[in-house]
Design a protein that fits this description.
Blueprint (H helix, E strand, L loop, with lengths): L1 E8 L6 H12 L12 E6 L5 H16 L5 E7 L1
Antiparallel strand pairs: 1-2, 1-3
Length: 79
């Protein structure tokens, strides 16, 4: 199994990296690009087949270590 985690800044948090990418795209001629949010992607290999047990553990790890819940949101998928 694999855990896939996508971390993005919360909508209310200023994202200077995303704004820089948005401005660069506009300067390169890609007009009409809306807000850009720069985040991170994590992929974790998981042994065994107990999906729900892993979901609980990885969710806890996201809250404690992998993300900053004050300024970031995340989406967790286990496949």
């Amino acid at each position: 199994m694999k855990a896939r985690i996508i971390v993005t800044p919360k909508k209310a948090v200023l994202d200077p990296q995303g704004k820089s990418v948005q401005n660069a795209l506009a300067h390169m001629g890609y007009t009409g690009v809306g807000d850009v949010h720069v985040g991170k992607y994590l992929e974790i290999e998981l042994p065994g087949a107990d999906k729900e047990a892993w979901r609980k553990q990885i969710d806890e790890a996201c809250h404690k270590f992998l993300t900053n819940p004050v300024i970031e949101d995340y989406k967790l998928e286990i496949e």
